[in-house]
Design a protein that fits this description.
The chain is α+β, with helices and mostly antiparallel strands and about 150 residues long. The protein has 5 helices and 7 strands.
Length: about 150
């Protein structure tokens, strides 16, 4: 398993993975996913095993030295095989390199498995947002303050 940067020809595969990972109204339309990937300050990591894309993560650097994880998607057959952990390690390392203070994301209120995964990594629920997704589902905003020499010296 290795991580690599996004390539232009990955878009259709990433879109299909996102559609399979999330319900309508939570998954992203192709044009929105493309916009997230291409916007200034955005980074996309692609997890791959034997030329098969097993997952991806899109994050953006925001004002106030904050990283926002737009989405993390892992192919169903690759879950609980450390793909998500590798992707989260990559975004958190990038955020530290960029000297950002925290990383945050939104997790669907009913996605307790994802919430438990993030909590095990040190993320905490800080806000509940009703009707966050276009299908009316609510979400938890979860964040992690970055630690270490870089964050401590800020």
């Amino acid at each position: 398993m290795h991580l690599r940067p996004y390539r232009c020809n990955d878009l259709e595969t990433l879109y299909q993975i996102d559609q399979a990972c999330f319900a309508p109204g939570i998954s992203y339309p192709r044009d929105e996913l493309s916009r997230f990937i291409s916007q200034r300050g955005s980074r996309t990591w692609v997890a791959e095993e034997s030329s098969e894309i097993t997952g991806f993560l899109i994050a953006e650097r925001q004002a106030q030295r904050v990283a926002h994880i737009m989405t993390i998607d892992v192919v169903d057959g690759w879950r609980r095989r450390r793909v998500g952990s590798l992707l989260m390690d990559a975004v958190e390392a990038w955020a530290r390199e960029e000297r950002l203070l925290l990383v945050y994301l939104e997790a669907a209120e009913n996605n307790t498995a994802a919430q438990a995964f993030y909590e095990a990594r040190g993320y905490r629920k800080v806000d509940h947002v009703a009707d966050y997704y276009s299908n009316g589902a609510s979400a938890w905003v979860m964040l992690k303050w970055l630690k270490g020499k870089e964050a401590a010296s800020i």
